[in-house]
Amino acid sequence: MGLDVTAYSKLSKIDDVKYLDGDVYDKTLTVVAPEAYDLVVYVSRDFPGREEGLEDRGVYQAEESFGFRAGSYGGYNDFREELAKLAGYPSVPGDSERHNHSRGAWAAKGGLFWELIKFSDCDGTIGPVVSKKLSEDFRTFDADAQTHGDAWFYQRYQEWKKAFELAADDGAVSFQ
Question: How does pLDDT run across 19-62, given as a tens digit for each residue?
């Protein structure tokens, strides 16, 4: 198990279909094949605003996409911890010694990479508005990320950077 991520650019909403109970239907209530669309937006109520620019349960077509495996859930949380350190979030003690800087980001009201660090590790959609902000964060800190941590961290950093650059162009980043 782990986190799979797909980034999309130039999304256009498909208006003559509807998402209901796990399937997409056309006007005649016939199930639409998954190949006919690229994204169904899932808005996590725990992280309001991340989807800005998209409609919850909206069905979209994309001009371009890029997917990658962000790692196991534990590996992804390790990445977020290193990202939180890079961004300068304080260490906040918790039940264990792990992910204390991530806790610092979760306690904050905003900041560098905040919308990604304080987001679901398993599902949800980040829309174009937040993607633009995160794209800028990744671009600005690229040189620092190269010297922070190890090659594994920087490889993941580059994948996330590419995803948010793509999604910043009227797109989205989908977590599955």
Answer: 998 999 999 999 999 999 999 999 989 999 999 999 999 999 99
User: Which residue(s) pair with 9 in the sheet?
Assistant: 64
- Three-state DSSP at 144 gives helix
* Angle, helix 151-167 to helix 73-87, in steps of 10 degrees: 90
Hey, what are 8's tokens?
């999309």
Report field, pTM of the whole predicted structure over 0.70: yes
Structure tokens at 127: 């829309």
Number of domain units in the chain: 1
Q: At residue 11, what is the residue type?
A: L
The parent domain of residue 166 ranges over 3-175
Longest dimension (CA), the chain: 56
Residue from 119, 103, 111 nearest 172 by CA? 119
In angstroms and rounded to an integer, the radius of gyration of the C-alpha atoms of the chain is: 17
67 three-class SS: strand
Alpha-carbon gap, residue 8 to 60, rounded angstroms: 10
> How far apart, in whole angstroms, are the C-alpha atoms of residue 80 and residue 86?
10
